Prior knowledge:
By secondary structure, this protein is mainly alpha-helical.
Amino acid sequence: MSESIFNSDESKNPDSIDPRYDRLRRIATYQRWVLFSLLANIGMNVTLMMDLVPDDSPLDLAESILAVCVLIFSLFALFKLAAEFYSVPRSVLWAALLIVPLVGLITLLIVNQKASTFLQQNGYPVGLFGINPNEI
């Protein structure tokens, strides 16, 4: 006797992941990453513009390494979030815009707003740090 794929035990499992909710969880996760990278970018820009660390200080190297780490994380987070809404070449373009100092912050805000609007249209309230992906 052959079983139909619709009658399998996997379809009866309440823990099976609905693709729609899986996408919503990914967007919520990536949005949270983008928001954290936005805060980190603002902090790094303020630190670098105010020149809080003297140039001859050993902390200057640490500041530069931290700035590169923040940039890499921001590129990754923005690319992952943009890839949920746009094609890969367009997502690469969004991520590449992060390299330009002020344009990068605006880019983070635009893609974050796209994610917030999408989550709100699906009935989820979005707060200051997005929505907890575990609540979806």
